[in-house]
Amino acid sequence: MATSKYQSFIESSSINGANAPYIEAYYEQFLEDPESVDPSWRAYFRLIQDQSAPRETPHSEVIARFERLAREPRRVVAAEAGFDAKAAEKQAGVLRLINYYRMRGHQAAKLDPLGLAPIENLDDLDPAHHGLGPEDFETVFNTGTLAAGADRLPLREIIRILKSVYTDTIGAEYMYLTETREKRWVQQRLESVVFQPKLTVERKHAVLTQLVAAEGLERYLHNKYVGQKRFSLEGGDSLIPAMDEILRGCAARDVDEIVVGMAHRGRLNVLVNVLGKSPKELFAEFEGKYSVDALSRHGDVKYHLGFSTDVEVDGKRLHLVLAFNPSHLEIVNPVVEGSVKARQVRREDEAGQKIVPILIHGDAAFAGQGVVMETLQLSHSKGYATGGTLHIIVNNQIGFTTPNPIEIETGKEARTSRYCTDLAKMLEAPVFHVNGDDPEAVTFVTRLAMDFRNEFHKDVIVDICCYRRHGHNEADEPSVTSPVMYDVIKKQPTTLTLYAKKLEEEGTLARGAADTLVKEYRDGLDKGENTARITLGLVGNKHTVNWSKYRDGSWDTPVDTTVSAGALKTISEQLLQLPDGFTLHPRVQKIWEDRAKMGAGELPMDWGFAETMAYGSLAKEGFHVRLSGQDARRGTFFHRHATIHDYKNGARYTPLRHLVKDKYGFVVNDTLLSEEGVLGFEYGYSTTDPDSLVIWEAQFGDFANGAQVLFDQFIAAGQAKWGRLCGLTVFLPHGYEGQGPEHSSARIERFLQLCAENNQQVCVPSTPAQMFHMLRRQMKRSTRLPLIVMTPKSLLRHPLSVSSLKDLTKGGFQPVIPEVEKLDAKKVTRIVFCSGKVYFDLVQARQKDKLENVALVRIEQLYPFPREGYEAELARYPNAKEVLWCQEEPENQGAWYQIKHRLAVYLQPQHVMMYSTRKGAPTTAVGYLKVHQKEQADVVQEALTGGKRM
Questions:
Q1: Does domain 565-809 have CATH number 2.40.50.140?
Q2: Torsion, Cα of 698, 701, 706, 709 (10° steps)
Q3: Where is the Transketolase-like pyrimidine-binding domain (predicted)?
């Protein structure tokens, strides 16, 4: 309908119909930014868009406007020609030209410092494509929304401004932003800068000093430690002045903490020249002269290590953190975001004004690794927003050895998308590509990006297009795979050389002054001193957390995890209270009624109730509880109901949040369908806040496969490599119930394989009370260790897997649960040890067969192995000859291969070690229910009456 109304205007107006191209261009401008057009035009365009408007749209206001334009003496060509059709077409062409420079100018920008990437000749940026020729260059046109400082300018000046802003050394991508205010903000900042001085002489000298430090450190290391890996920053030197600009901007905004995540490229440079790490310490790492007291048990290579310190910037004290990171590059992204979130919660900085995350990426990794997308998707989700992240990409235009398409005439080898940053468009995050050999442009877009983040609390990308002077590492020969690129690089002056020459030519730097700065920096390195950034250390820092009490604690020190009956009753009653008029779903209503009986001791306690009591009691004691997962609120298996929904209107209510006044006392998040990103976030959170019980729950334990890097590189090894304590708890639903290969096993064997030196706990609780005491023990003990829990599925409602309320008021978590039946110990000839659901199958089969010679013992903590409890059970049955391990999993999976040596080492000479498992298999479980049932029955029967010898 809008098209027909627009056409009716053309046909009905003999005075103005020829000006349709002008109106069309103005309408396109309205579609791009409604606020940029005159209010009367805005109302008119909205009217023709309105499908419910009258069939005939009144054009009187528009006609009157053109009549006024025709009468007014104006300097524009339209007035001189009586605003005829040709004039309107010219003006429309100018508006289109402006728009296309904004949209596509980045494709013609001079971004590649090597000059290898061809500059595209785009028709859309050619004035002739819009009906404009040389004869129009001196004509004055309306500039539309161009923030050029004047409403009307000659076409020549308009084009000069557009080229300067959009096709010089900055390529801005932002026209895909749908929020008009954000788009106009970027336009204003970019386009108005052509009339403003870019950097003061003082700031130019500061940038030069940063480049001296960046290049000076790399050359010093290159000459002193020949051939040693350092993953040089050379070619991407402008990262250091960019980081300096970030620090200055944060100091001006009164930011307190900056948390940085980055991979190894340029990491040593950032450590020394940004965070102020002592060069003497760095040299000692190159020379292998480590302080034994400073080492973790195993340590890590120097370009993976983190750092934490305070620095002074423009009179402001800033706390800087560089997160530890393995060679899995982008995996650090969610870890940093989680750490930042924990800091923001601690400081009640919900807007992210005081603590800022900075992520530094490589171009190939940013485009290629899925955890980047997962982290970006978390950026505005509930419970995960950190107020926006500034992303800096050190774009070497090359992956490991795979060149960017700039060297390839046919096809694309490095990636499919045009830019490595294209992934950010899904967030509508603006991207500022910038030539790394123009450090002034780099500092400008960095400041612009920080301002955008501060204004809109959104992610923003700075893509520093640069190069890699050496190979992937210093022992690599890059010209083997990229001969053309590296022939150019060998001849390319360094960024420092180019910038010093520029400053000398413009008269802001005395000739030879740069050489003096280089010598002074080198002399400082010779003395082991940092002349670029002086660290203040952590003395007097008020924002860090004291972890010392957890470092000295022992995992096996007994702790009291009981809760009094009165306290449990109070918590239960509080949690059962609902808002007035709140209607529960009938099934949830039954659960609420049962929980009331459980709280009164009238009904055996189920898993959901016990878990809730653990969270509630911890919150009452001042701890925070943070639970996340893809269905964490309800629980995948319909058991938790931490958040309930009004059956009539959908309103949500989380009872545990109202248990204490602290709004962070209990937080539960239903997350996006991500394992790696969310687990990384929660790990980062837990390494930053020892007083929070941080739990990540997989929808099924099998899905932890998607986050294996986190388990291998961070959770299991973080303390050994980096000394990073972590109390993260991971729930992995596990159990063989005929649901097929992907919904059975949480891969216990993988977690046990990672166990050594008491680095983490692997538990398989079999009763609600065990779950209660285990969770409380995690926070009450004097240390912080990761806790991997194989949580139940069908056991959640198993009639034998229940506890009494009294079980919470006494005892504690039992690493080994002895036989519960009153067997005659002298008659027992076989002891069956097991974990998890299979225990209840064994109990029922033993009862059916009336076996009195078999004792069933549960090992609830597979690691650290409960030696004392295990030996006590062996000694309990003096006539037992057969000691058997039973598991549901295939022989080559589950706990057997990882636990058999522990079971065997404590046996007495009379004992024979046996086992009962499914047959070894390449898949975790069968996909047919009847086959599963037969296998399960065979495993149970073999455990009670047969078995294979070890």
A1: no
A2: 100
A3: 605-798
**Which stretches does DSSP call E strand in 314-438?**
316-322, 355-362, 390-395, 431-435
What mean pLDDT comes out for the span 720-745? Answer: 93
Cα 261 to Cα 683: distance, rounded to the nearest angstrom: 14
- Ramachandran class of 460: left when φ > 0, alpha when ψ lies in -120 to 50, beta otherwise: beta
Antiparallel, parallel or unpaired: β 257-262 and 912-918: unpaired
Please report which residue ranges of 883-949 form alpha helices under DSSP H. 896-905, 929-945
What confidence category does residue 616 fall into, taking pLDDT thresholds of 50, 70 and 90? very high
Q: Are 745 and 701 in contact (CB under 8 A)?
A: yes
Strand order in the sheet with 854-859: 816-817, 854-859, 830-834, 882-890, 912-918, 948-949
Residue partners of 922: CB distance under 8 A and separation at least 6: none
| Among the four given CATH numbers 3.40.50.11610, 3.30.505.50, 3.40.50.2030, 3.40.50.2300, the one describing domain 816-949 | 3.40.50.11610
27 pLDDT higher than 80: no
Residue with tokens 């003496």: 73
**Separation of CA 31 from chain center:** 34
629 φψ region: left (φ > 0), alpha (ψ -120 to 50), beta (else): left
Pick the closest to residue 869 from 839, 911, 845, 833 (CA basis). 833
Q: Do the first three CATH levels of 201-537 and 816-949 match, i.e. the same topology?
A: yes
Each residue of 308-338: b (16+ CB within 10 Å) or e? bbbbebeebebbbbbbbbbebbbbbbbbbbb
- DSSP class of residue 118? P
Tens-digit pLDDT profile for residues 262-277: 988 889 999 999 999 8
Buried b (16+ CB within 10 A) or exposed e, 692-708: bbbbbbbbbbbbbebbe
> Are the C-beta atoms of 906 and 855 separated by less than 8 Å?
no
Locus of tokens 């990426």: 361
Look at residue 827 and tell me whether its pLDDT is greater than 50.
Answer: yes
The better pLDDT of the pair 717, 299 is held by 717
Q: How is the chain split into domains, by residue range? A: 1-104, 201-537, 565-809, 816-949
Instruction: Copy the structure tokens of residue 613.
Output: 């009591």
Residues in the chain: 950
Two tokens, residue 414: 């490095």
Token digits for 902? Answer: 């522990």
Q: Which long-range contacts (CB under 8 A, 24 or more apart) does 932-936 make?
A: 932/736, 932/737, 932/738, 933/738, 936/736, 936/841, 936/888
- Give the pLDDT confidence score for residue 48 in this predicted structure: 66
Residue in the block written with tokens 């394989």: 753
Q: Which of 287, 285, 289 is nearest to 300 (CA)?
A: 285
Radius of gyration of the chain (CA): 34
The neighbour count for residue 769, using CB atoms within 10 Å, is: 26
The model's pLDDT over 621-652, given as tens digits with 9 standing for 90+, comes to 999 999 999 999 999 999 999 999 999 999 99
Inform me whether the pLDDT recorded for 157 exceeds 70. yes
Contacts of 613 (CB under 8 A, 6+ apart): 563, 568, 571, 572, 772, 808
Ranges assigned E (strand) in 570-703: 624-629, 644-645, 652-653, 666-670, 692-697
- Residue 167: which residues within 8 A CB-CB, separation 6 or more? 101, 105, 108, 109, 110, 125
Q: What kind of fold does domain 201-537 have according to CATH?
A: Rossmann fold (3.40.50)
Q: What is the DSSP string of 58-102?
A: P-HHHHHHHHHHHHS--SBHHHHTTS-HHHHHHHHHHHHHHHHHH
User: What is the rounded CA–CA span in Å between residue 940 and residue 946?
Assistant: 9
Task: Give the whole-angstrom CA distance, residue 289 versus residue 294.
Answer: 11
- Coil/strand/helix, residue 732: strand
The confidence score (pLDDT) of residue 6 equals 46
How many H helices and E strands in the chain? 33, 26
> Does 57 score more than 70 pLDDT?
no
